[in-house]
UniProtKB/TrEMBL annotation:
It is found in: Cell membrane. The keyword Cell membrane applies. The keyword Chaperone does not apply. It is a multi-pass membrane protein. It comes from Thermoanaerobacterium butyriciformans. This is PurR-regulated permease PerM. The chain crosses the membrane at residues 74-100, 141-158, 164-189, 201-223, 243-264. Belongs to the autoinducer-2 exporter (AI-2E) (TC 2.A.86) family. PANTHER family: PERMEASE PERM-RELATED (PTHR21716:SF53), TRANSMEMBRANE PROTEIN (PTHR21716).
Length: 271
């Protein structure tokens, strides 16, 4: 962790701050360029299409613009609301300090509540659950890192501006099922379209390929190794959770299955 922090501060953090600074400076110009590109596509390419097709395409384009504007607004609102969680970041180390300081006292008080004959098994269940959740969180971090690296490299290959910043954003947003990858792809596609239509298309293709590679190869393998579940079990859990509980089901299905497995194992196997 110390090596990662040092490398981040020395190499990655300056790149991120530089790209963010340049992005905020150039953002008004990028918006104007993107608007010009869209109008140019409408005037040049749609002029050679049948009137009915052009009408439908314009209608769908307007709907897409509204959806993109809605997602961008939602992303901005999320970033703004994120500032409200800064207090939690400040309180977290304080609470952690007191929990660690009084750990033995808290343990003894919890043990007093549990009947003596069940304390050994109860302690083992809590310890195993803690291990599963820790591995699950680490697995999510590994997947985000993989998405960040693959996205950044792909965007660098086609020379999209702010590729590292966009890759990091994509890795963070990838934790959110469905909407996360979509929100992460918007900045890359927009930056690509500013340069050319083909670069915007290639940016979309890169995001699509990264998501396919991540969901088909890395996610099941990393999650199965992290929570000690077979890749098929992970996939089935994700499908079941999405089918019955939507986004929250996809977020929580794997850790819930892993926790249930731990509890059943500890309950039916002697300590």
């Amino acid at each position: 962790m110390l090596c990662i922090i040092v490398l981040t501060v020395l190499f990655i953090f300056p790149i991120i701050t530089n790209e963010m600074s340049n992005l905020f400076k150039m953002l008004p110009g990028y918006i104007d360029d993107l608007t010009y590109k869209i109008n140019d596509i409408k005037n040049n390419y749609l002029a050679y299409m049948p009137k009915e097709f052009s009408t439908v395409l314009v209608k769908r384009t307007n709907m897409l613009n509204k959806e993109i504007a809605f997602m961008i607004d939602a992303a901005i609102q999320s970033i703004i609301s994120l500032t409200g969680h800064i207090l939690n970041l400040i309180l977290t180390p304080i609470i952690t300090f007191y929990l660690l300081k009084d750990k033995d006292i808290l343990k003894s008080e919890i043990k007093e509540i549990i009947p003596e004959k069940m304390r050994g098994r109860f302690s083992k269940i809590l310890k195993d659950l803690d291990g599963v959740m820790s591995k699950y969180i680490r697995g999510q971090i590994y997947i985000s890192v993989v998405v960040t690296i693959l996205t950044s490299i792909g965007l660098m290959i086609i020379k999209v501006k702010y590729s590292v910043l966009i890759g990091i954003l994509a890795g963070i947003l990838n934790i959110i099922p469905y909407f996360g990858p979509i929100l992460g792809s918007i900045p890359a596609i927009m930056m690509g379209l500013i340069d050319s239509l083909y670069k915007g298309i290639w940016a979309f293709i890169i995001f699509f390929l990264v998501q396919q590679i991540e969901s088909a190869f890395f996610a099941p393998k990393i999650m199965s190794d992290s929570v000690d579940l077979h890749p098929i079990t992970v996939i089935v859990a994700l499908l079941f959770g999405e089918q019955f509980f939507g986004i929250w089901g996809m977020l929580l299905s794997v850790p819930v299955v892993a926790m249930v497995k731990v509890i059943l194992k500890d309950v039916f196997i002697e300590v």
